Amino acid sequence: MKKLTLLFLIGVGVLFFLLTAFYNADSRNKYVTMCVFEVYGAAKIVIAYEDGKTEELALNRFVSKNFVSNTKIINDAINGLSIKGYELLSVSGTD
User: Fold this and answer.
1) Fewer CB atoms near the end CB (10 Å): N or C, the chain?
2) Residue pLDDT, tens place only, 69-89
3) Count of domains in the chain?
């Protein structure tokens, strides 16, 4: 009976150690949302970080001659987030 109790306590201790040793309270995924707004007359990128901070980046006016330059700005913004350690998880858009 004493051996069984001792084994039980050791097992609970080992389980507790394993559960707490590898748990990091700050290991939750943190997300950034990046929205690109291109409407006639105005265009910008809005980035919302997990800590509540936001960042706005200006784009050129939404006209056909600016499609390439705006695409480069958007690409630079995505690469900037990648440098900060974020990964692109999904993309959505309209046709």
Assistant:
1) C
2) 999 999 999 999 999 999 888
3) 1
